[in-house]
Design goal:
Layout lengths: L3 E11 L12 E10 L2 E6 L1 H7 L5 E11 L1 E7 L13 H13 L5 H17 L2 E7 L4 H13 L4 E4 L1 E2 L12 H15 L5 E7 L7 H13 L4 E6 L3 H10 L6 H6 L8 E5 L5 H10 L2 E4 L1 H6 L7 H7 L2 E4 L11 H14 L6 H15 L17 E4 L5 H7 L5 H11 L5 E6 L2 E5 L1
Bound molecules: guanine and zinc ion.
GO cellular component, one term: cytosol
InterPro entries: Amidohydro-rel (IPR006680), Guanine_deaminase (IPR014311), Metal-dep_hydrolase_composite (IPR011059), Metal_Hydrolase (IPR032466), Metallo-dep_hydrolases (IPR051607)
Cofactor: Zn(2+)
Length: 430
């Protein structure tokens, strides 16, 4: 038996990238959307959807905006409980707050509670796909994939590998990192909506031997993603130079070990040399912009417009908990603010595209998620564009959909998220 639903509201679909000129013209609005068995069948006017599915139940969202669910391309779900920890920059922040908390995830019960908590919180903020680092414990990966499977949620995750410069209890070895990651790939990659990302934390916490082992694993499983961090803070870049004296630059520490490729996701990538930028673009790797994290842990400003103009693949992310928010709305606002400081006012369409289609394309999942179009998975967020008095009074002045959306991108939070649908099922409503 087929399962059909018609949603009505302002259904927003991108017809092309808003970075390819005239951003406001990159999307269309329809009044309705038909979902069948978790997949978008069509968008159009309400009568047309009714003709396609005369018996389908209708869910009416008034003038709320229905768009693709948010795709958060870089998070650390194990850092949920230490978000907004005071007073440290990257390396001290890792040692003071992050590593002690991550040390708790060898307990499968704790990992399960935190995975549920993370997915509950982010669902309420409109995030339908997250790409998460776990901890070194395989149990933390299993817990995350299990929690996502129970919600039929499309996620990407991997065991964070570290064999030096971290507490001993959090360290694996080159061999156990390889073995445990491989076992998790066999268990989870491509199972339902789960995908595995091979996950060396960053070069400072991996020996060359571990990077080599994970590069070999990626070569054996080239359809996996690979996620790591790159050139986030200047101190970190200097440290990498001392740890890898033979490397030409930070990116080279990955490339020399088989960890540079088109399915690579490089978090932050703020302080890049021209040669690193060229290589990343040549191979089609993705840079993941984490704007609230840029400022919260004092890393610096990612030059998004410049990287976009160079032709980089770019995703948008919260970087929970180095980032200071679970909200991909707040993250769009922060991306706007950082854009302003780098001399470019990003258009509301560009911000929304980055949080949906752009991130999905960074994950090579742009044909399945990140937009509303026939054949795509029905992961949707329904946004109330007048969710607070402050936003409502501003939105009434709007002359078009982008002016109506922008106050919510700048000032909105989970109160703006009226409903969230995952694979055609409503999973959150307020
Ligand atoms: N670099 C290495 N590990 C981390 C982490 O957990 N968060 C952030 N923001 N940067 C990192
Ligand atoms: Zn990170």
């Amino acid at each position: 038996m087929t399962n059909e639903t018609i949603l009505t509201g302002q259904v927003l679909s991108f017809t092309r990238s808003p970075f390819d000129g005239d951003p406001g013209g990159a999307a269309r609005l329809d009044a309705a959307l038909l979902i069948r068995d978790g997949i978008v069948v069509a968008t159009g006017d309400s009568a047309a959807m009714q003709t396609l599915a005369p018996n389908a139940p209708r869910v009416a969202y008034g003038d709320a905006l229905i768009c693709a669910g948010f795709v958060d391309a870089h998070v650390h779900y194990p850092q949920t409980a230490i978000i907004a920890s005071w007073g440290k920059r990257l390396i001290d922040w890792l040692n003071t707050y992050t590593f002690p908390e991550e040390g708790r995830f060898g307990d499968p019960g704790y990992a399960a509670v935190m995975a549920e908590s993370y997915l509950d919180l982010t669902l309420a903020h409109g995030t339908t796909t997250a790409v998460s680092f776990c901890t070194t414990h395989p149990e933390s990966v299993t817990a995350f994939f299990e929690a996502a499977r129970a919600r039929n949620q499309r996620v990407v995750a991997g065991k964070t590998c570290m064999d030096r410069n971290a507490p001993e209890t959090l360290c694996d070895t080159a061999q156990t990192a390889y073995d445990q990651s491989r076992t998790l790939i066999d268990a989870w990659h491509g199972r339902g909506r789960a995908q595995y990302a091979i996950t060396p934390r960053f070069s400072p916490t991996s020996t060359p031997e571990q990077l080599e082992a994970l590069g070999a694993l990626w070569a054996e499983h080239p359809d996996c993603l690979m996620q790591t961090h790159l050139s986030e803070q200047r101190d970190e870049v200097a440290w990498v130079r001392t740890l890898f004296p033979q490397a030409r630059n930070y990116l080279d520490t990955y490339e020399a070990h088989g960890l540079l490729g088109p399915r690579g996701l490089y978090g932050h990538a703020i302080h890049l040399e021209p040669r690193e930028r060229d290589r990343l673009r040549e191979v089609g790797a993705a840079l993941i912009h984490c704007p609230t994290s840029n400022t919260f842990i004092g890393s610096g400003l990612f030059a998004l417009a410049a990287r976009m103009a160079e032709g980089h693949r770019i995703g948008l992310a919260t970087d929970t908990g180095g980032g200071s928010s679970f909200s991909m709305l707040r993250t769009q606002g922060a991306a706007y603010e950082i854009g302003q400081l780098s001399g470019t006012a990003l258009h509301p369409a560009q911000l929304l595209w980055l949080a949906t289609a752009g991130s999905a394309q960074a994950l090579h999942l742009g044909d399945r998620i990140g937009n509303i179009a026939p054949g795509m998975e029905a992961d949707l967020v329904v946004l109330d564009l007048a969710s607070t008095p402050a936003i409502a009074q501003r939105a009434t002045r709007a002359g078009n959909i982008w002016e109506a959306l922008f106050p919510t991108q700048m000032m909105g939070d989970d109160r703006a998220v009226r409903a969230v649908w995952i694979a055609g099922q409503e999973r959150h409503a307020r």
